[in-house]
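User: Here's a chain of 392 residues. Predict its fold as tokens.
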Amino acid sequence: MERFTLHVRMTKHCNADCSYCSSWQEAPDQYMRTPDFARAVDFIADEVLPLMGWQQGQGGHLSIQYVGGEILLVPKSTLRGSVFYARDRFGSMFDVVTDGCQTNLIGKSDKIAALQTLFGHRLSTSVDNYGTQRTVKGSPELYRAMLNKSRAELKRRRGLNAPAIYVVDAAGVEHAMDELEIADREGYDLTYRAVFHGGKDVGAATIPELSALYVDLFERWAMRGTTMIQPHYQLLTTRLAERAGDEGLYKANFGCPFQKNCAFVSLNLDPNGDLYVCLDMADSGQYKLGNAIEERFEREVWEALAERRDHFDAKCRSCKFLEACQGGCMSEAVHHTGSPYGRTELCAVWLAVFDRIDALIDREGIEAVADWCRRIAMPKTGRFAVPQTAAE
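Assistant: Prediction complete.
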């Protein structure tokens, strides 16, 4: 089933002060009020999605991912009203509508319980068990204590072992392997996210450091891990599907940040109504597509981004991994080259991982690797798979 992803950022306010926050603003936008949200959703459904090729009644799967800032800071009644409006409005357009949220889980128990009730087990968070980048009132210890308390309550009372994102910056490289060990031991899925050059200055790891780390993580995890580690799982399954000729497996795991048709399958709505292709392009101010509250859409800008589906860097066009990689992230390409048709700075990282993936498939065989991939993707007691957002 064809999929479309809508990122909805209800607010840019946050109750934490992380040094590498990609959504940081000196004066954060107010949270989006329900009437503005409804107006924006109607415009997206009536005008934007049809332009992108999504028509009423044609089917498809819409995934709505509510992010921040911090989603817990949106009043419960406002969030609930907005979520139910979107479910109803888009439910007449898509065969399947699912939604989830990304939250730091820094909040009172009743608010976190209400969030889980609203989204079920489609909730993910962020972790940093060793570093000093994620803080509350300047304290990483307080951040960890509040997060761990909330995670423990959700697991004990709601059966939710929330999947998490770990941001890899220069300081985060040291403990990235430790985070894998914890996730594997405690049974939650983990996404490694190279630090994003968004709202604040960041200390990024070097490309050689990232290449070595991502290869080491793959070698530790492949055929031995019990949870999904991203982006390794996505890269492995898309390459495996390509080599096996399994179109179903490929489509099931195809998506951000390894897709060439972002402009057709992704949209981000910011608190003030601004539209971008994705969360990262919004944080970077790259190629604004208009404003849904004001009912404006810049068709020419969108058409330029849509051309990426057929335009690649020369090295990408000749790469044997292009089908699985799809040229990588368009936002990263803009950062690195100034062009949406350029090559991402992380190309060397993905090439190194793909080389290990091919070696694994050659050594273990397609069926054995596919069987292991199926096993770790299965929900387990106290651990439920949920689509990971790009948020940090």
